[in-house]
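seq as requested:
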Amino acid sequence: MTVATEPAVTPERRRAPRGSARQSIVAAATELFARRGYEATSVQEIVAAAEVTKGALYHWFGSKSELLTSIYRELLAEQTRRLAEIAAGDGPVGERLRAAALDVVEHTAEHLAELTVWARSAHLLDDEHAEATRRERRRYHDLFRDLVHEAQLAGVVRADVSATVVTHTFLSALGNIHTWFHPDGPLTFTEVGHQLVALFVDGVRAPAESAPAGGPARG
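struct tokens:
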């Protein structure tokens, strides 16, 4: 399986505007991590591609691992904020759950390179930055699980499967698309994601009868 990558950063690339060193570092690191892999990419290669000094990189990031986790944590924070807004919305819970599933698919499609880099490299990290990222990821999972649980209590999502199982099944399926998706295939990543949402929504829909007395467990 291959994932589309950005064009290689070349020495001829125009120098980044003043004040955008951090953005240049993140863009160069994302491209190099995607093309060469996290372990095979050196700090020197990143600063050369970004056309900055090592001092500039270490001004923003304490290490290569912090750079990698920072790329993901910023996107995760955005995902979490968007999910919280959807979950707290006024619409019917079934519509909010579907909107949340579509939102994470579309956000993933918008940032496919960065999120694929993280999915491929996260297992290589074992430091305080990685642990902080795992805690933040659990917060996203908990918010999504709570929305599923609310939908179960409302009788619109099946209650014979725990909200935790439902949540992990959907988010894990989305997170693993990169292992088999091919950009030259008949469907775009967004189209694949929307089909996944359709399967998710249909698969968790409650039967005509209401949820069992006492309500479902979150798991």
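Residues 11 and 48 are 8 Å apart (CA to CA).
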